[in-house]
Amino acid sequence: MTESNQLVPVTPASAGPPSTRHETFLPATADRLDLTESVAFFRRRFTLILGVLALCLIAGLAYAMLAPKIYTAKATVMLTDNAAEKIRAADRPESRQVLSNELVDTQVEIITSRTMAERVAGALGMGRGLNSDALRNVIDELEREVSAERTGNSYALAISYSATEAEASATIANEFARQFAGWELRSNKENHAESLTLVQQRLGELRAQAQADTTALQQYRIANNLLSTSGASLTEQEISNYNQEVAGARAAAAEDEARLQTALAQLRSGSSGDDVGEALGSTVISSLRAQEAEAAGEVANLGSKYGANHPQLIQAQSRLVEVRAQIQAEIGRVISNLRAKRDVSQQRMASLSGSLASARGQLTQNNSAMVGLSDLERAAGASQGIYEAYLNRYKELLAAEGSERPNAKILTLASVPAWPESPNIPMTIILSLVVGLGLGVIAAYIAEAIFHGVSTPDELERASGGNYLTSIPLLKSVEPKIRHAVTAMQHSPNSGFAESFRALDTAISQATHGRNQVIAITSALPDEGKTVVSCCLSYVLAQSGKKTILIDCDLRRAGMSRLLDMREHDHGLIEYLDGKTDINFDDLSDQRIFCVLPLRPSNEQPDHLLTGDAFIRLLDELRTRFDHIILDLPPVLPIASTPILASRADATVMTTRWRKTSRFALRAALKRLPADQVNLVGLALNQVDMRRRAYFERGDPSFYYKQYRDYYS
C-alpha cells in the first residue's frame, strides 16, 4: 500500500505541469477590428447597466410624477412700423442691427418690468382683497415668472409665463401681451397729456417772464431817454437832425451875411442901390422903376413943351421926385431886410448849435446807460426766445394730440398648454435614459475595474500559477428544472452537468498519470461548492464501476453529511477515529461500489484525530479496498488543518467559484499549500453560469456551450 503522505513519484511526464497544446499557438495577427471583447464586456455587465438604467428611469419618472408641475404658455407680439422707424433711421446695415438689438432689449425690459406686472395684476383683479404684503408677493411672482425673447431676427417677441396651473399661465401670458400691445399707446397718451400740461404751465410762466423783461427794458429806455423808433435812440436821431440843420443854418447865415455885406459895399461905393441884387429882383422896385421911367418921360415931354415953371411940368417933376424917393425908400427897406435876415440866420445857427450841444450831452449820458440796456435787451431776448420755443412746442403738441399709434400688436394669443414644461416628462425620461445609460456604463467599468474574481481558465491560471482542470456549470444554467446536484447526476447522467465531472476525473487522471487513488477536494473560502463537487465526482467514479468512498472531513460545516442527509447515522468518521466504533470494511467494500463516511453532529472539534496517525491508518486501510477515496476537505484559509489533510491525498483539487472567489484569496490559499507536501494537480472553476459564459474568453471550451449543448439532449 502506498503511504498517504507520499507524493506521486516525479517522472519525466509528471515533472511539471502538463503542457497543453495551446501553449504552442502563436498569437493571431491583429489585421482587423475585433469588437468581441467590447461586446462581451457589455453583455456580461448588461444586468448592472440595466439595473442602473432602471433606477435612473424610476427616479426620473418619480420626479416627473411627484415634482410640482409648471405650465408655460407663450403669446407672440410684433413690433409695428412705428417702433421700427428707429431702425430704418440708421444708414448702415450694422447700425440698423445695433439699433434693432437695443430696441428689442428695451421692449423685453418693458415686458418684464414691475410696472407691467402691476398693470397685469390690476387688469386681472389679482389684488382684490389682498393686503399690501400679499399684493407685493403677487406682483413679485408675476415679475419673476414672465419672460420675453426675440424670435430669430424678426420683430416678433415671444412672451412666456410659467404657472402651476395651465389656464392661469395662458390667461396671464395673454394679458401681458395685451398690456404690452397697448403700452406704447397709453404711454404716449399719458406722456403727451403730461407734456402738454407741463408745457402749458411753463408757457404761462415764460409769457409773464418775457413781459416782465420787456417792460423792464422799456422802462429803462424811458428812464434813460433811450427811446427809439428806427433802431437808433431818439437822441441819436435828434443829433443827426441837429447836425444837418446846424450845417444848413451856418450856410444860410453865411449867405445872408455875404448878401448884406455886398449890398453895403455897393452903397458905400456910391451906388444908388439900383444894382443891389435883392433890389433887382424886387417887383416893387421894378414897378417903381417903371413909374419913374414914365414920370421922367412925362417930365421930358412937358419940359419940351412948357417952361420950367409950368404947373404940369412942376407936377410931373414932383411926381418923378416922389417916385424916386419911393425907390430909395424901398432900397433902404431891402438893405434893412438883408440885415434882419442876417441876424435871424445867426440867431438860428446859435440856437441850433446850442441844441446840438445839449443833445450831445444827452447822448453821453445815454451811452453810459447803454450798458444796462444791453443786459436788459439780452434778458428780454432770451425770455422771448424761450417763450416762442415753448409756444411752438405747445402748438405741436396740440396738433399731434390724438395721432398716437401703438408700438406693437398681438400676432398670436397663448393657448392652454396640454403638457407641463417642468418637469418635461418626455425630456425627463430621455435624460433619465441617457444619464442612466451613462452611469450604468460607468458603473460597469468601475465594477469591472474593482472585480477580482476569476472568469476564464486563462485568468485562473494567471492568478494561481496552477493548472486549470475543467469548468463545472451552474446547475440551473444547464438543468433549470432540477434543483439538487445529486438528483441531476442520477436523473440526467448524460447532461452537461454530469459530463463536467467526467471531464474533471479525466483531467485529474491525466495530471497524475492514473496515480489518483486518494483525491482531496478543497477551496480557498467557504461556499465555493467543493462539497457538491466531491459528491458528484464520487458518483461519477462509482458510476464508471470503480469502488469509491466519500469521506466528509469538514468538521465545522459537515457539508457533505448535510447534503446527503446522513448526520443522524449511527456512526461516523470521528467515532471511528476515536475508537468508539468499528467499521466492517470487508462487508462495506464487498456490498457497495459507492460508500460514504459521514460526520455526526458534535460540539467538539477534534482536529487532532484527522491530522493524527488514526486518519493515516484509515486511509491505508481504505486504499486496499477502494479504487478511489474522495476527501471533502474544509476551506484552506479559515481552517489550519486543511493543508495537513491535503498532504494525505495523492491529488488535491481546489475548486474556485466562478466570478466570486477573489484572486487574492486564491493566491493566499495556494501559499498555504506547500508544493513539496501537497500535490495540487489543478483548479476547477465551479458554478459557471453557462448562459453568461459566452460573454468571456473564446479560448475556453465553455464559450461554445450554446453550440454543443444539444449534444447532451
Write a structural description:
With about 725 residues, the protein is of the alpha/beta class. It has 26 helices and eleven strands. The strands form two sheets. The chain has a seven-stranded parallel beta sheet with strand order 5-11-10-6-9-7-8, with helices on both faces. A four-stranded antiparallel beta sheet has the order 2-3-1-4. Strand 2 and strand 3 form a beta hairpin. The chain is rod-shaped, with a radius of gyration of 72 Å. The two termini are about 40 Å apart. The N terminus is likely disordered.
- Fraction of residues in helices? 55-70%
Q: Give the termini distance in whole angstroms.
A: 42 Å
Main sheet properties: 7 strands, parallel
Total count of helical runs of at least 4 residues: 26
Q: What portion of the residues fall into strands of 2 or more residues?
A: 5-15%
**Structural class, from secondary structure content?**
alpha/beta
The radius of gyration over CA amounts to 72 Å
Write down how many β-strands occur, each being a DSSP E stretch of 2 or more residues. Answer: 11
* Strand order in the largest sheet: 5-11-10-6-9-7-8
Overall body shape: rod-shaped
* Poorly predicted parts: 1-26, 86-99
Q: Averaged pLDDT, please?
A: 78
